[in-house]
Amino acid sequence: MFPLHGRWIQSRCKVILLVIWVVSISLGSVQLFVSKAQAFPYDGRTVYDCNEYWPSSKDRQAYTVFILFATFVIPLILLSLTYVNIGVKLWRHTCPGNVDERRDLNQIKAKRKVNDTLNIFLFNMQ
């Protein structure tokens, strides 16, 4: 959209990917410490039951709320704001050149279609 703005350089992309991987591994590794498999006899066989054992119920609740916000709520808000921004920029954009009523009506129809598509997408995400 802005050809004169700086581009992402390869080293910055590598750092961002590294941060994403480290955060993902650290969030997922919590399960290594709180999950336990317990063996118990059932119908003449040994069956394993996997459960989470947290130090307190508040720790479990805090982790669950954090994961909900980090993986759903915050990305949903960011995507919604991004699509609203796209819709606003698209709606404010006018075609260059002289006024042509037929062309302008076609542009308005196209903008409405895109706006309807963005609205459907936003409301279906929620």
Summarize the structure.
The protein has helices at residues 10-34, 57-92, 101-125, and strands spanning 35-42, 45-52. The chain has 126 residues and is of the alpha+beta class.
Spell out the key features of this protein.
two-stranded antiparallel ribbon; single chain; alpha+beta; 126 residues
How would you describe what is shown here?
It contains three helices and two strands, in the order αββαα. It has helices at 10-34, 57-92, 101-125; strands at 35-42, 45-52. It has a two-stranded antiparallel ribbon with strand order 1-2.
Please render the helix and strand layout as text.
Elements: H1 10-34, E1 35-42, E2 45-52, H2 57-92, H3 101-125
| Beta-strand percent range | 5-15%
User: What's the total number of strands?
Assistant: 2
Helix content: 55-70%
| Residue-averaged pLDDT | 84
Query: Order of strands across the widest beta sheet?
Result: 1-2
Unreliable spans? none
Structural class: alpha+beta
The ordered string of helix (H) and strand (E) elements is HEEHH
What kind of sheet is the major sheet? 2 strands, antiparallel
Tertiary shape: elongated
If you compute it from the alpha carbons, what radius of gyration comes out, rounded to the nearest whole angstrom?
A: 25 Å
Report the total helices. Answer: 3
Distance between the termini: 28 Å
